[in-house]
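Need residues for this backbone.
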């Protein structure tokens, strides 16, 4: 069987979810014929230097302690970054590959605000409105008992119904009205009487926290960037749903269809999916066959848990060249120690 024929089997099994039986092979025979395909490095999207109108950033946590951060232009994947957790180092490794876009759409994950100031200080920020609503529900629950909480949750629910600059102005006015009515309520304090206890704390801490988040985002101008007249006609997104419901959902479906993949196989499978959804997807059959000769003597790289430094000082990026394949990678296993 030719390399192209074996690569075709691999692609149909991996990306089209054909079983070995449907491909006319026993599982062992299929595994033997396509084993070399796992050793070929998946091509990443070309870095063209194009300045995008918008870049959507989001992270998804996967098996073996990995997190995957993806960047899209609203339709196609531009690049991705493996990491152990969302943090400034991981986002900086991704952002350093791209020129600053006009707008960044983000869920506000850990470390991203700091990194944006360093790497893309001129880019405008649009916070994902769905995540803001979800954060508010986490604080207040879906059914707050107090009138104060009910009114604030109602405001958060209205965020995704804003369609025009006039709607945005009205929403901001309602947030100010809410504060005028409930200012004394969220500023109430409870004083500790027990020895050794805190001297005081906010009585309605969760309501206050939810309001302060909305107030801070409104003051920063991160809620309605997508409605700025200077971006008219650019279809700036107000959520990261194209990642959550598109890329991330596709990754979960792929890994569900191929349960039990080893760590390196899981990463390769996900990267082929990302490649096919990228701005310049490769033809898997042609690419694999072209690089078949590079795998004849190559053995799969073993996973390792050997640290190069104490985890409490780690950035989550592995700079050891032995574990790099053209990007900065994260060493597995430390999050469980």
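Answer:
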């Amino acid at each position: 069987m030719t390399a192209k024929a074996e690569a075709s089997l691999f692609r149909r099994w991996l990306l089209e979810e054909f079983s070995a039986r449907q491909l006319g092979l026993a599982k062992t025979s299929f595994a033997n014929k396509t084993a070399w395909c796992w050793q070929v490095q998946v091509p990443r999207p070309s870095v063209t230097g194009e300045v995008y109108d918008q870049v959507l950033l989001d992270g998804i946590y996967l098996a073996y302690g990995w997190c995957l951060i993806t960047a899209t232009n609203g339709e196609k994947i531009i690049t991705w970054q493996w990491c152990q957790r969302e943090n400034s180092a991981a986002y900086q490794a991704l952002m350093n590959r791209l020129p600053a876009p006009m707008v960044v759409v983000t869920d506000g994950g850990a470390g991203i605000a700091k990194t944006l100031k360093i790497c893309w200080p001129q880019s405008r920020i649009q916070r994902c409105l769905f995540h803001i609503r979800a954060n508010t529900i986490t604080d207040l629950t879906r059914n707050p008992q107090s009138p104060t909480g009910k009114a604030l949750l109602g405001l958060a629910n209205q965020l995704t119904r804003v369609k025009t600059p006039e709607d945005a102005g009205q929403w901001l006015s309602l947030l100010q009205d809410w504060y005028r009515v409930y200012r004394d309520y969220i500023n109430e304090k409870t004083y500790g009487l027990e020895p050794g206890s805190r001297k005081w704390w906010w009585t309605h801490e969760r309501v206050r926290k939810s309001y302060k988040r909305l107030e801070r985002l409104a003051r920063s101008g991160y809620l309605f960037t997508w409605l700025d007249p200077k971006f008219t006609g650019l279809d700036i997104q107000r959520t990261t749903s194209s990642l959550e419901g598109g890329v991330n959902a596709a990754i979960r479906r792929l890994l569900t269809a191929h349960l039990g993949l080893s760590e390196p196989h899981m990463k390769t499978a996900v990267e082929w999916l990302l490649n096919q959804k990228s701005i310049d997807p490769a033809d898997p059959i042609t690419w694999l066959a072209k690089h078949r000769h590079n795998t004849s003597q190559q053995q799969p790289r073993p996973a390792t848990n050997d640290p190069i430094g104490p985890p409490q000082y780690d950035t989550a990026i592995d700079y050891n060249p032995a574990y790099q394949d053209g990007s900065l990678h994260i060493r597995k296993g430390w999050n469980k120690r």
